[in-house]
Amino acid sequence: MNSAAETYILPGGGASITALPKISLHDHLDGGLRPQTIIDLAEEIGFELPTTDATELAAWFESQSNSGSLVEYLKTFDVTIAVMQTRGGLFRVAREFVHDLAADGVIYGEVRWAPEQHLTDGLSLDEVVEAVQEGLEQGVVDAAESGHTIRVGQLVSAMRHADRGLEIAQLAVRQRDNGVVGFDIAGAEAGFPASKLADAFDYLAQNFLPVTVHAGEADSLDSIKSALFDGRALRIGHGVRIAEDISTTSEDDEGVYVELGRVAEWIKDRQIALELSPSSNLQTNAWGTELADHPFDVLYQLGFRVTVNVDNRLMSNTSLSKELFLLAEEFGYTLDDLAQFQLNAAAASFLSLDDRDDLIEQILTGFEQA
């Protein structure tokens, strides 16, 4: 494998966060390309880039993504998607994606992407899914040869504005025995609630395929309600605006007392996982511009099933280890806290119960040895 991850050490603890076993639930394939790979693939197809220097290109992506707007943030994907239209391009990106997860200590990753955005070179929906799966599987083999054990699954996403929800849901079910573990909807939230894809979600429910829904990132609490009611979501992609449904009732020397609204109470009591992505949330102004203002810690302390995610490693110049390091640095988390985040993610993964139990055992063993 030709990949390397920066090593992050737990503040004050000495343990290597990078070496710890981790679960990645919210990680976009088209948001995790290596800059040099973009340059190589762009040259092959004659696509013009802002720069052909890998370091400068990485900086360009991060700068463009720091707009404070999800709509502007999403425009950077015009570049990555452009170089992911051929079977070879999809294979390479997927293979390297696994290399980079393994180098970051990830033992299970769910890779989400939207097949409908990768058809301009003449491939069919099934062919692009198969190309990505071949790349993911080769990446797993490569990782094993380098001493890393990792599993991956595809989360097939429908673009919520494109009116192809049912078609993509049918694709996901058709490919469920070829690496697809679940379904998602992505893209601009405002004006495109889950209810607009009701037929897709009905079909998925009838076929028992798990669903996560982007909600509560760039739209209000109503988007989370729609994800739960219309989408039958088992997890919420981001969901940071669930904090709007939590109100402070009083405060004294012993602490702050809060009251949960109906939606927040439902998510907490039923342990519906929140796929929080702190750095990305700050970039898109989903909730504030400083990590100290992010509701991650409040949700964790209140008992929500919080998980830590990267969203888009390229755009946020991040990794799962870096996100955990930043949270530990800001909120004083210990090794036990980081373990809990991974256990939350393992329990929320779209694997069988036995496979989830295996992940939990790997996490407990890895953290005990740290």
TrEMBL record:
It is an enzyme of class 3 (hydrolase). This is adenosine deaminase. Its EC number is 3.5.4.4. Keywords: Hydrolase, Metal-binding, Nucleotide metabolism, Zinc. One of its GO terms (biological process) is adenosine catabolic process. The lineage of its organism: Bacteria, Bacillati, Actinomycetota, Actinomycetes, Micrococcales. Residues 21-364 form the Adenosine deaminase domain. GO terms for cellular component: cytosol. Its cofactor is Zn(2+). The gene is add1. InterPro entries: A_deaminase_dom, Ado/ade_deaminase, Metal_Hydrolase. GO terms for molecular function: adenosine deaminase activity; metal ion binding. Belongs to the metallo-dependent hydrolases superfamily. Adenosine and AMP deaminases family. It comes from the Bacteria.
